[in-house]
Design brief:
There is one protein chain. The protein is α+β, with helices and mostly antiparallel strands and 100 residues long. It folds into 2 domains: 1-50, Winged helix-like DNA-binding domain superfamily/Winged helix DNA-binding domain (Arc Repressor Mutant, subunit A); 52-100, no CATH class. The chain has helices at 2-6, 28-48, 54-70, 91-97; strands spanning 10-15, 18-26. The longest helix is centred in the middle third of the chain and has 21 residues, at 28-48. The protein is flat, with a radius of gyration of 22 Å.
Length: 100
């Protein structure tokens, strides 16, 4: 958060009743950046989904949810790890896929 505050995208305010508590808020520049990022995301999503029907999108989402549920581990958003590292026996992947 400090970097966002330093860049003027967020503001910090200590609460008078409890100085240990800090309230964070987007600044005007932060809100403008958030709007621009949201618009960019919508544009990219539209481009990626061209030619993909609503039914196909729903099937993809359902499949992705099943895969995540089957992973038996919580998602590690933001961490860069090799997905195969979850398997103690690397050959297990090939065996499951019929390649072993």
């Amino acid at each position: 958060m400090s970097k966002l505050v330093d860049r003027g995208l967020m503001g910090r305010t200590r609460l008078p009743k409890d100085r240990r508590t800090v309230r964070l808020r987007l600044t005007q520049d932060g809100r403008a950046l958030a709007r621009a990022l949201a618009e960019e995301l919508r544009t990219r999503q539209t481009l990626l989904m061209q030619g993909v029907s609503d039914v196909e999108q729903a099937a993809f989402a359902a499949t992705a949810h099943k895969i995540l549920a089957n992973s038996q581990c919580p998602p590690r958003w933001g961490r860069r790890t090799d997905p195969a590292s979850r398997f103690t026996n690397a050959g297990a992947i090939d065996e499951r896929m019929g390649n072993g």
